[in-house]
UniProtKB/TrEMBL annotation:
One annotated Gene Ontology cellular component of this protein: cytosol
Annotated coiled-coil segments of the chain: none
UniProt GO molecular function: 5-oxoprolinase (ATP-hydrolyzing) activity
Cross-referenced Pfam families: Hydantoinase_B
GO-annotated biological processes: glutathione metabolic process
Protein name, entry field: Hydantoinase B/oxoprolinase domain-containing protein
Length: 108
């Protein structure tokens, strides 16, 4: 990773979620990430579920949908089995980024 927050501070978390977005398994990373990530995955399933397809990737930092704060970006990938029309599980990771495009470096 290029990000110092991710590479050196290890400010990231990874987890697996079931087809309903419920947490199945997680690596022992940042508790505040893992506690809110399920809400993020479930929010995206609720809003995008029927339209999700193989190869889709969702990026979210929505503060009202399980986002802990704006610099924590969550990447969610649905996983499909063969010709299934809906995802059988979801892979998600959340990482803290120092600069997400504010007017000055490090701002929001």
């Amino acid at each position: 990773a290029i990000s110092t927050n991710i590479k050196e501070r290890l400010d990231f978390s990874c987890a697996l979620f079931g087809p309903d977005g419920g947490l199945v398994s997680n690596a022992p990373h940042i508790p505040v990430h893992l506690g809110a990530m399920q809400e993020t995955v479930q929010f995206q399933i609720q809003h995008l579920g029927p339209d999700l397809r193989q190869g889709d990737v969702i990026l979210s930092n929505h503060p009202c949908a399980g986002g802990s704060h704006l610099p924590d970006l969550t990447v969610i990938t649905p996983v499909f089995w063969e010709e299934e029309s809906s995802a059988i599980f979801f892979v998600a990771s959340r990482g803290h980024h120092a600069d997400i495009g504010g007017i000055t470096p490090g701002s929001m």
